[in-house]
Q: What sequence folds into this?
């Protein structure tokens, strides 16, 4: 009887530990400065909300200075879906560019039939929905749910126009002094592939591995940098 009680207590403890490890804040608000080749071009404001087993992320990018003249409404990304034991499971993704409905890009995730439906430029296409696929926005928040003891992090990602396999490799630990504060981070790197962009992302170790800096080396030679200026967890 005593052994049975101990086994039950151990099982309960393991479940509680797993819950704590996999837990994420119910609400996150973050703002970033975006620079292009060292010059600030935009401000990005993002909100992550988890209600029960559902989540929604919204990201708004607005041009600043002279770039606001060419912004024409900015860029809005929306991702919604489920929170599972493996992290975020997107169901719907939207990419808005200004108020022009002709530039709307949509991705719908049919996990029951493993079908990804992509709508853009007036066309509709389908593709095989690979396990663990993220959208362009949920990808960065998925880092909070992934095991960071492994050197490589791999998953598929869609931007609403196609699907591609992403692989990030651990590139060391760094302490960053940013406008939002000082963070001890893990740096992951995605190398150029198929003439695509290269990406580096810094994850704050004491903030649930939330991305605090992202640098994209564009295939055409430019550099985009997104740096955290404000962060609040609830």
A:
């Amino acid at each position: 009887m005593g052994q049975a009680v101990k086994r039950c207590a151990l099982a309960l403890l393991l479940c509680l530990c797993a819950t704590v490890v996999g837990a994420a804040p119910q609400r996150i608000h973050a703002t970033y400065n975006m620079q292009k080749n060292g010059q600030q071009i935009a401000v990005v404001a993002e909100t992550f909300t988890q209600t029960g087993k559902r989540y929604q992320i919204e990201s708004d990018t607005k041009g600043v200075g002279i770039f606001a003249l060419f912004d024409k409404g900015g860029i809005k990304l929306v991702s919604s879906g489920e929170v599972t034991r493996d992290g975020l499971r997107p169901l719907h993704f939207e990419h808005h560019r200004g108020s022009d409905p002709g530039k709307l890009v949509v991705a719908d995730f049919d996990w029951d039939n493993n079908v990804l439906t992509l709508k853009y430029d007036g066309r509709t296409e389908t593709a095989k929905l690979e396990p663990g696929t993220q959208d362009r926005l949920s990808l960065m928040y998925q880092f909070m749910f992934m095991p960071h003891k492994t050197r490589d992090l791999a998953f598929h990602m869609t931007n609403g126009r196609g699907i591609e396999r992403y692989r990030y490799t651990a590139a060391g630990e760094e302490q960053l002094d940013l406008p939002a504060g000082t963070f001890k981070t893990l740096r992951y790197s995605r190398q150029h592939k198929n003439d695509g962009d290269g990406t580096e992302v810094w994850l704050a170790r004491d903030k649930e591995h939330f991305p605090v800096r992202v640098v994209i080396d564009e295939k055409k030679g430019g550099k985009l940098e997104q740096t955290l200026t404000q962060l609040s967890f609830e």
About this structure: The first strand starts at residue 27 and ends at 36. Residues 25-233 form a domain with the outer membrane lipoprotein receptor (LolB), chain A fold (CATH 2.50.20).
